[in-house]
Amino acid sequence: MRTFESMITIDEIAAIVKEAAKLMSHEGFNVMHKGTVANLVTSSDIAVQHFLTERLAALLPGSGFLCEEEDVEELSHEYVWIIDPIDGTANYARGLSDCAISVGLEHNGEIIAGVVYSPDRGELYTAEKGCGAFCNGKPIHVTRRPFEEGIICTAMSTYRKEFAKACSDIIFDVFMDCNDFRRFGAASVELCLIASGYADLYFEMRLQPWDYAASSLILQEAGGTICDFDGAFPSLRKASLVLAATSEKDLSRLLDAVHRHLPALPY
Which of 52, 67, 152, 264 has the lowest CB atom count within 10 Å? Predict the structure, then answer.
């Protein structure tokens, strides 16, 4: 197993993530709101994040953090962990299986390791920069279906519903040219499903870095591609529109559909 400059291994990160998942009990947690009814946080989110920050800081001393809960931002470090303690909290709070812990490790502005673990699905996705992508230890790769046969994973901008009409127009546009669409409610899971060959395309109007940091590397190492509104890699510091596909050709086709309905990013 390759190490990050002889410091840590992907297996060590994955072991910590799997241990953190033991805190994701489906009983006895509290549900709260973060500003809107749609934006949930649970006591399990907080517990998982505290566990991860403590254990990962010990694993890689001097590293920083960017985490979804409690406004954790420690960015002035060479290495930064980008963490979503439970991606798909609304699913988790309702007992639905499409939720995951997402941990990406950034080095000088680039994701070099990613772990996404969905305990209810029984899927542990891992990737190191330049070393391929894996699910439960087995190599994964995107499937090169034609755009017309593709399934797009998408959403309607739940937290910013003023963008819903634009989302609807873009989704309709793409839907008329592809096979079908799916809504799983957890970006990390959806991008990993594309990496595994189960789905093919992705569009979401506004995501935060912790939603895609780990899974973006898993997707890329599996042969897929990802970009923002401008065609660049999505920001690791602020919200981005996110597109993904199994090929640059299909990604360009998605980007064209977005630009037909959005002359500029609306935030």
Answer: 264
